[in-house]
Amino acid sequence: MLSVLLVVIAGVQVSTASGKADIKKALEAKDREFVKAFNNKDIASIMASFWKSPQLVAFYPDSEYIGYEAVQKSWENLFNQMVEINFNLTDSHIAVVSDNTAYDWGHFTFDFKPKGATQTMKSKGRYLDIWEKKDGKWVITVDHASNPIPPPLQAAETGGMNK
């Protein structure tokens, strides 16, 4: 009986490891699709990555959006302000928590040229996405992106104002 139990447990562990690898591959593909959609300003494809729910949450630099429609509007506003975009995910990590939950974190680069600007601006930041399987589909339920805050100016540079 013990040998049967060990075989069953070993089979579950192999299946779980294989399942986690498959989930990780699927989410890596979703990340690539997201980057492509971002660079093409393809809002429909971007929004296909998100949970179509009023409970969707997105935290972006200097803003917070609750609900699918609010997040979609934020993407529309962003792309309406840009004439050129080059976005990429770097140093990505995906952790599979269960068959229905994973998180994805890393860094991004975002080079963009706003309407009316003569030069391209460069931005780097961090991201964290929580992926959940909803209705058989992997979707982002929480999206967070942030830009590092520059270190405080030294007292000599500010005339001693940081005392």
Question: Would you mind describing this structure in some detail?
Answer:
With 163 residues, the chain is of the alpha+beta class. The chain has a single domain, classed as Roll (Nuclear Transport Factor 2, Chain: A), CATH 3.10.450.50. The protein is built from four helices and six strands, in the order ααββαββββα. The chain has a six-stranded mixed sheet with strand order 2-1-6-5-4-3. A hairpin with a 4-residue loop joins β3 and β4. The protein is globular, with a radius of gyration of 21 Å.
Secondary-structure map:
Layout (H helix, E strand, L loop, with lengths): L1 H38 L3 H5 L9 E4 L2 E4 L1 H13 L1 E15 L4 E14 L6 E14 L2 E10 L8 H4 L5
Parallel strand pairs: 1-6
Antiparallel strand pairs: 1-2, 3-4, 4-5, 5-6
Known CATH architecture: Roll
Shape assignment: globular
| Multimeric status of the protein | single chain
CATH fold-type name: Nuclear Transport Factor 2, Chain: A
In short:
37% of the residues lie in helices and 37% in strands.
List keywords for this structure.
163 residues; 37% strand; Nuclear Transport Factor 2, Chain: A; alpha+beta
